[in-house]
Specification:
It is globular and about 115 Å long. By secondary structure, it is of the alpha/beta class. Strand 13 and strand 14 form a beta hairpin. Helix 23 (821-831) runs parallel beside helix 25. It starts with a strand and ends in a 21-residue tail after the last helix. It is built from 28 helices and 35 strands.
Length: 996
């Protein structure tokens, strides 16, 4: 860079233009003849940093002078001005702590740096000022190192723009030199740096340095992406590039392709990424999950930390960068005529959040935010009329997150000690969770129902079936047990006890969460209650019956309310405990709580209380799976530990498959021979059982919690099977996931994670149809099975007969016109109060019942086609139950179950026989969860024996949803070159008959 200055004032203006761009850690080597204007240049820099010009003098006789100032953005910064002329030996640099000052996070200007070149940092800007006989100064600058190159480019761009304005005679340049910027223009230059895409990127060092953060957010209708360089010394995130683009319900198709195009454009390879930052919300539930799942996949593949940042905070920080100051409210759209309002105080020093994340009706947000100086947020797109009377509205471009805002939010968290982009342990992707601010609808309605003290029949509804009931059951506390809580309170709490009225008053409150532990006789043996307010989960009560203490009940109860607390927007937990209660204090300390101080005379008897605070902890096992049961399905014999590299390479390709279409998170690894090296499943049944069926919102939330742990377990088991010490995502040849059909919110987690992991590992992504996976499940039992064949798919969501003409060539012969078989089993079991899932319970009862006791209808058995209908049968069973109960007759559950089951089997077998006869196929197979029903399997065995048809059935463990079957499909598709692009999306419905 080269520019001219014709006066001392212009020299100061050029310095001010540079000063407006400086950040902590920047180093400038300043040289020039005596009287050339070096001190004037530094005075200009100081002017931009808010230092009074009269304070800045030459350091020639002092060696070092320092000045306290602020960046244009308001952050404190120290300006150090060295003159090394009087130093003779390098050892004298130690005396003035030269290296320490350079690393202190201030801005350093160094004169006579050429005396000690070895002591100068590699990343530096060099400015030389010379003057001719007429007093005209020439200012020349060069740079080495990534940060300084970017700084030089931005400085030069600002000066060039000002020179062009001056030549055009614009008002902005009036009275200024052609190459100078006035200090009052400095904030605009700083803002431009916040938006830059111009900072050049240095190539990787030979050591493979990771120093870049990739940040993105998809919490609303805009995708925001930011790329920044991480400076560990100053905890600074220097923007390199940002992107914002509209994405109306298209985040999953646009996010990764945009990132994939952006990074090569700015010269950043994947290998340089040191950290992923993603918007945690609150926002659109689906949008937040796409962001979080993608980020988890990318971070896990790159093996870097993942840091979740607040979406509204990113909006606020961009306002700060834009020069907004004062009280600001961000009002984000929460759908359902609700908003997420957050209040901020924005000052020169930065952004201060004034409330935790919360959700409320849009109209209620008006009094909540008070009278701010500005209102912003994407909620204004719907509710601007409500907020216009309150305060001025921000420009629409400032309503949503930006890449610059995300980077500034990360920087603020880093400097506050709340996050560290280089801390791999704290940034484990498995522990990053979205912000929801509320329970699922099903859970909210459940709390309302349970808090109702009106007497009701407790023998109906979803119950556990007989001896299958666990020894201890955990479920939200209901009003029917409020008296039991009061009794235990009296026994255990003494003067601190709550009475029944207090418990009943507390249960229905939306900001409370209560859980109970019950034995096999439904006796309350433990309980916990919490209050969530302003981001803090305050533990009100927790107790365990004396005869059940030291059984882990309190820990399990605490885990349940911790999960509720996170869902309600809490970020920490707190409590008061008697100073004499050593046992309770030790319990909390074991769960990460710390003593913050003493509250004198807190209890009725005037005993002091300790105030304790702790994290909303998640279990820190090696493979966190969201508190679900992790099952390992049968796989091939493990290879010996001395397998050599050549043998391992012979198994290629290696593929990871992910299944998340409904209520189970599963992962499997398959090799090129079709051998399953791992097949693991995290079951969500316990989280859905109390609702009598799958709750889509809960399923999606649990997938987000479990996905990393399940995948890591799949990798570790596969490594053991192969005799390897470790298997990484980067070692794979492709990554696949179920893309259809299924619950959209569940599917999107698996697909977004898989695409992110595939991008991070730089391998293809393979999409798989879930129904095709059930066909391939038969390969797990009989690897050499070959079409043509007829397959009966019977599950909770599907009942169909499929003619498999060849792998990938399918014809649906008939399917249900209403309920699926598994759905009918669940509904009948629920009507009988037997629990969920209904299939295993009905099957167990039917084993001892008379299948001819009740003649239920065989719907569409003689319809002349291969369609099914289960709705009428379900209704007939429920009607029978009601009539028998009305007549005062005692129901025989085994006979009822056996009669219902037989009605289902008769239709299934009859239709299957017809399908075999019509197609001429000599092979019959099963698929789906109901395929595990013993009576149905026996009926099919008898049918195939009579027809002389070979019967193949998947292992019982592979009938329900699993990733092994998805992996086998993915292997075939990968070997055929059938991969999906990064803009692939999920589908709720996808017929098998249509090739994909």
């Amino acid at each position: 860079m080269l520019c001219r200055s014709e006066s001392a004032e212009q020299t100061k203006q050029v310095g001010a233009a540079l000063g407006a761009l400086l950040q902590g850690g920047d180093v400038v080597l300043l040289s020039g003849d005596l009287g050339a204007g070096k001190t004037q240049f530094v005075q200009g820099v100081a002017r931009a940093l808010g230092v009074a010009e009269g304070e800045v003098t030459s350091p020639t006789f002092n060696i070092l002078l320092s000045y306290e100032g602020k960046t244009p953005g308001g952050l404190p910064i120290t300006l150090y001005h060295f003159d090394l002329y009087r130093l003779e030996k390098a050892e004298q640099l130690v005396d003035i702590d030269f290296a320490g000052v350079l690393e202190s996070g201030g801005v350093c200007f160094i004169e006579w740096a050429d005396k000690f070149p070895a002591a100068m940092p590699e990343d530096r800007l060099e400015v030389a000022i010379t003057a001719d006989t007429e007093g005209v100064r020439t200012i020349a600058a060069t740079a080495t190192g990534e940060r300084s190159l970017g700084l030089l480019a931005a400085w030069d761009e600002g000066l060039s723009r000002e020179a062009e304005d001056a030549q055009a005679g614009t008002e902005q340049a009036a009275g200024k030199g052609a190459a100078a910027l006035d200090a009052e223009d400095a904030p605009a230059v700083s803002a431009a740096l916040g938006k830059q895409v111009a900072t050049p990127a240095q190539p990787l060092t030979e050591q493979g340095e990771r120093d870049v953060v990739l940040a993105f957010d998809t919490s609303n209708e805009v995708i925001a992406i930011g790329v920044g360089r991480l400076d560990a010394a100053s905890r600074t995130v220097c923007p390199i590039a940002t992107r914002e683009l509209p994405a109306h319900r298209a985040s999953n198709t646009k996010l990764l392709p945009t990132i994939d195009a952006l990074l090569p454009e700015i010269g950043i390879p994947r290998e340089r990424i040191a950290c992923i930052a993603c918007g945690r919300g609150p926002g659109s539930f689906t949008g937040v999950r796409i962001c979080m799942a993608t980020a988890k996949g990318v971070a896990m593949a790159l093996e870097v930390p993942l840091i979740g940042v607040s979406t509204p905070d990113a909006v606020a920080w961009k306002l700060w960068a834009d020069g907004v100051r004062g009280d600001v409210a961000v009002v984000a759209d929460a759908m359902r005529k609700e908003v997420y309002p957050v209040r901020y105080a924005i000052a020169d020093e930065g952004v201060e959040r004034l409330n935790a994340d919360v959700v409320m009706k849009a109209a209620d947000g008006v009094p909540f935010i008070g009278a701010p100086d500005l209102v912003t947020g994407d909620g204004l797109a719907k509710y601007a009329d409500l907020y216009v009377p309150v305060a001025p509205l921000a420009a629409e471009a400032q309503w949503t997150p930006t890449g610059a805002g995300l980077l500034l939010t990360l920087q603020a968290a880093w400097r506050a000690g709340l996050a560290d982009p280089f801390d791999a342990e704290a940034g484990n992707p498995a522990y990053a969770l979205p912000v929801y601010t509320r329970l699922s609808d099903a859970e909210e309605n459940e709390r309302i129902r349970l808090a109702d003290a009106t007497p009701r029949d407790l023998t109906t509804g979803v119950q556990h079936a007989g001896t299958d009931r666990p020894a201890i059951v955990y479920r939200p506390l209901d009003a029917a047990h409020a008296a039991d809580v009061a009794r235990m309170e009296h026994e255990l709490m003494g003067n601190d006890a709550w009475n029944e009225a207090l418990v009943l008053d507390d249960l229905p409150r939306a900001d409370r969460a209560w859980w109970g532990a019950y034995d096999r006789e439904d006796k309350l043996i433990g309980y916990v209650g919490v209050l969530v307010v302003d981001g803090d989960m305050q533990i009100l009560k927790i107790a365990t019956a004396r005869d059940h203490q030291r059984e882990g009940i309190a820990t399990e109860l605490l885990a349940r309310v911790m999960e509720d607390g996170r869902a309600l927007g809490a970020e920490k937990a707190s409590l008061e405990v008697r100073v004499s209660n050593a046992g309770a204090i030790a319990f909390y300390e074991n769960h990460g709580f710390k003593n913050l101080g003493r509250r004198p005379g807190y209890y009725p008897d005037r005993e002091d209380a300790y105030i304790m605070e702790g994290p909303l902890w998640l279990p820190r096992e090696a493979h966190e799976v969201g508190g679900m049961e992790l099952k390992h399905l049968p796989i091939a014999e493990s290879a010996s530990s001395d397998v050599d590299t050549a043998a391992q390479d012979a198994t290629r390709p290696l593929l990871l498959a992910i299944e998340s279409s409904c209520d189970e998170t599963a992962a499997a690894i398959v090799d090129g021979d079709g051998t399953l090296l791992s097949d693991v499943v995290a079951s969500q049944i316990d989280f859905h059982a109390r609702f009598g069926g799958v709750v889509p919102e809960i399923a999606s939330r649990k997938h987000i919690e479990a996905i990393c742990g399940v995948v890591q377990e799949g990798l570790d088991v596969a490594a053991q099977s192969m005799g390897r010490a470790r298997l990484r995502l980067r070692d794979l040849d492709a990554i696949s996931a179920t893309y259809a059909p299924g619950l959209v919110g569940a599917l999107v987690v698996g697909v977004a994670f898989a695409k992110g992991a595939a991008w991070g590992a730089d391998v293809p992504f393979v999409g798989v149809n879930h129904l095709e996976g059930h066909l391939y499940a038969n390969k797990i039992a009989t690897a050499d099975i070959e079409p043509p064949m007829v397959v009966s798919l019977v599950s909770g969501g599907h009942t169909m007969l499929v003619h498999v003409r060849d792998w990938g060539d399918y014809e649906t012969l008939g399917s249900t016109i209403d309920d699926a078989v598994g759905e009918a089993f669940d509904k009948v079991a629920k009507a009988l109060g037997l629990g969920y899932p209904g299939g295993p319970i009905i099957s167990k009862l039917a084993a001892t019942g008379n299948p001819k006791a009740v003649r239920f209808p065989r719907a569409m058995m003689h319809s002349g086609d291969l369609r099914f209908s289960l709705s009428g049968l379900k209704t007939a069973v429920i009607t029978h139950i009601q009539k028998e109960q009305a007549a005062g007759h005692e129901l025989s559950l085994p006979d009822l179950a056996a009669s219902f089951q037989q009605a289902v089997i008769d239709v299934q077998v009859a239709k299957a026989r017809t399908a075999l006869e019509e197609t001429g196929a000599r092979e019959f197979c099963l698929g789906g969860g109901v395929a595990a029903n013993p009576a149905l399997r026996a009926a099919y065995e008898n049918m195939c024996r009579n027809l002389g048809v070979r019967l193949t059935m998947p292992p019982l463990s592979s009938c329900t949803d699993n990733a092994g079957m998805i992996a086998l499909v993915a292997l075939d598709r990968f070997q055929q070159g059938k991969t999906f692009p990064l803009d692939a999306d999920v589908k709720a419905h996808a017929p098998l008959d249509i090739a994909y």
